[in-house]
Give the backbone structure.
Amino acid sequence: MTEFLDLETQDAVRMPWNVIPGTKHEAAQCIIPISAIYTPLKPLPKSTPLLPYSPLRCRNCRSVLNPFSIVDFSTKIWICSFCLHRNHFPHHYQSITEDNLPAELFPQYTTIEYELQNEKPSPPITSQVFLFVVDTCIIEEEIGFLRSGLARAIGQIPGNSLVGLITFGRYVCVHELGFFQKIPKVYVFNGSKEISKDQVLEQMGFFQKKARPATGGGPGTRDGHLQDNVSRFLLPASECEFAVNSVLDELQKDSWPVPGDQRAARCTGTALTVAAHLLGACVPGCGARIMAFLGGPSSEGPGCIVSKSLSEPIRSHKDLDKDSAPFYHKAVKLYEGLSKQLVHQGHVLDVFACALDQVGVAELKIAVERTGGLVVLAESFGHSVFKDSLVRVFQSTDNDLGLSSNGMFEITCSKDVKIQGVLGPCASLEKKGPLCADTTIGQGGTTAWKMCGLDKSTSLCLIFDITKKEIPDVAGQAVNNQFYFQFLTYYQNSNGQMRLRATTLSRRWVTGQGSIQDLIAGFDQEAAVVVMARQVSFKMETEAEFDPIRWLDKSLIHLCSHFGDYQKDNPSSFVLSPRLSIIPQFIFNLRRSQFVQVFNNSPDETAYFRMVMNREDVANSVVMIQPSLITYAFNCGAEPALLDVASIAPDRILLLDSYFTVVVFHGSTIAQWRKAGYQNEPEHEAFAQLLRAPISDAEAIVKERFPVPRLVICDQHGSQARFLLAKLNPSATYHSDAPLVPGGDILFTDDVSFEVFLDHLQRLAVQ
């Protein structure tokens, strides 16, 4: 596994197959597609230089000069590794020799970053823009929590970043922050109606001093008058902190009366539409984020997800499966239109949903994911999950999120490889070409994607198609057995500078009888299960009659049957190479995970889990699929434990990290001693240290992660122990014959254990 981690450190890429099957037929037999999980902005090694000039590009295929290019130093020509086109070096490369290479030709710099000198962002605003859209249909206590969270966040925003504020309930209120000692103004829109961009701009006085544009698309020129309008609604954080805090201090629960048997009238869809129109007029093409703080379901106007009557429940997974959720498709259509508008403008939608009920994250998913937005789901605005996550967004330490904007991602590959599509936070730019495969998955049919918002952990899953039918048998002629891939990411960093990161990979392909051992040697189990998790989530959302468990089981059986060693019809002879030995365990846990099992989760929660997994790198995604378990005991330090109910013992503490929750679980004896207060007595310092160790480890995990996970501290047989028990392998259940560990636990479940699952797998794989 270490060589795969080294490749990830250098190039931020993990591939399930690091040796690639050479023909279409052999690739199909591999079951898991030829794919890559790429993290475009993963921090580079300290030694990698930032090049202060633009890259040299092939005149034919537009790929960037890289260490795999063939260079003829005598004629000053380089040959592109993708299309074999011959290119002349420009004049400023004339001093190039074998001993005097530019950085982009160094073999260790397969990933390099350029600072683009001549490409300044089109608007003169290089700072980031944050437009807060705040729900006021929440109880006074929640408004207090939200007010203090926002005030803390605004204090952390860099002084040159622009800030705007919209509040909404039954009506949408756009606050004019740049009132400069005059009476503050608020522009009010009816939340129950669809509002066009022209109506928004006309009502807010954008057309007062100049003729209305004939096209009807809003003011396109950035003249002085438009600049005045920008400074009315979007002000530098250093200037508007007082104005925003004054509005927040006076923020009250929406005053529209709500009958006891009805929900509050909340016009989320209209509020987000108005926000998108405002940013489109003021800062098109600039790194801007709409940050929506939602405290309940939308029940008014476009985008509503439920009627006002409390007798009508909010849609469940069962309603969506039966197509009996009356508002769902209409709301998704609205947010799909909003996502196209935001992608065109280059703006991001972030959602902070804090409520005990659903707020409509399932419908909003398309707009958040296409624009690369952040999503946080919590039970209350007073919960640490919300408060700490919001602070992390604006942190400016080494541990910050590295928020960047205006990204564009492009792919070039060798002629026998085509791109089927991308699963992850991006939107297709419809750039058709010979590299596009006939079948598409995710955002496909293109070789370029828009990434309005991206950060250090944003990861894309790229699915490739091998198109080579068969290898020509040319006697005495060496066939080049390398496939090349190049990923180009343009983006604007938080300081407003345009950068280009170029990653060029070379992977060997193999074909024929002896190729299976080569394929196994280059197999990355962790990357493979993450690709399968993204695939199964996508299929569950897009294919009507899809059975995820059956699909995962068939895939695993075919994989084991193709790559395992066994005698036909003899299950006891079945052996998997160490390179594949953990994949059955990963798939077992994926089948039981929240990405596949929607029972007991709302559509909002399922959408949230999938959105986070679809944007995280391999290491984080693996923790979501198969949580890590660490045990603490007196006679030994922290040690990894099996994710099994047998790991529970009365004299141990367990630390479970399942990404969204971090659980510290005290065995029954430890809990009794703690309640008796032994840890406070000087002679029991060892016990006090034992109690402190898992808590400090848990806090370290919480501090590093976004969204901030929920920290649960519980005892064996307590009500919150369910957070741990739900993730464990049920090797001991109420109807199993397994002997019970003294003081251990059993699970009340009908789920099969991993041992039973493995027996079935071996029996089917050898048939």
The first helix runs from residue 2 to 11. The longest strand covers residues 498-510. The CA atoms of residues 76 and 321 lie 63 Å apart.
